[in-house]
């Protein structure tokens, strides 16, 4: 039963060898880069964009463009600490214990539930890394042409 498989594999290898012999080698034509002739030139980093918004609490919230869109971060985040398993600086303003004192929006109730819907006293681990869904705004031109139109307030 194994002989046809080996024979089939050998036949395929011979056919492949025959096909490669009929095409000229890449070295004969010369290898060309998709970036152009000068592949030794270093890539230029794009200019660094500045986040819109400054200190938290000074900006209005950003209007959402579609249903179920995570709220956008209206303030700069470049001076915030990195979010780690032990620390999340976002929660120092947006969790249930601090949001009223800081006059900031409370995190969504969905962030205080396990996947099965059971409520928790702390932010669920799957919702701990805020910037996975919530993003700050930058003053940057679109990378590609975009005809997206946000939904109207009536359509929400």
Defining key terms:
Flavocytochrome C3, Chain A, domain 2; 156 residues; 0% strand; 21% helix; elongated; mainly alpha
**Model regions low in confidence, pLDDT < 50 over at least 5 residues:** none
Quaternary structure: single chain
Report the average pLDDT across residues.
78
In CATH terms, the superfamily of the domain at 50-142 is Flavocytochrome C3, Chain A
Number of strands: 0
Structural class: mainly alpha
How much helix, percentage-wise, in residues? Answer: 10-25%
Kindly report the CATH topology of the domain at 50-142. Flavocytochrome C3, Chain A, domain 2
Strand content: under 5%
Could you explain how this protein is built, in words?
This protein has 156 residues and is mainly alpha-helical. It has a domain at 50-142: Flavocytochrome C3, Chain A (Flavocytochrome C3, Chain A, domain 2), CATH 1.10.1130. Helices cover 21% and strands 0% of the residues. It has four helices and no strands. It has helices at residues 2-22, 26-29, 91-94, 99-102. It is elongated, with a radius of gyration of 27 Å.
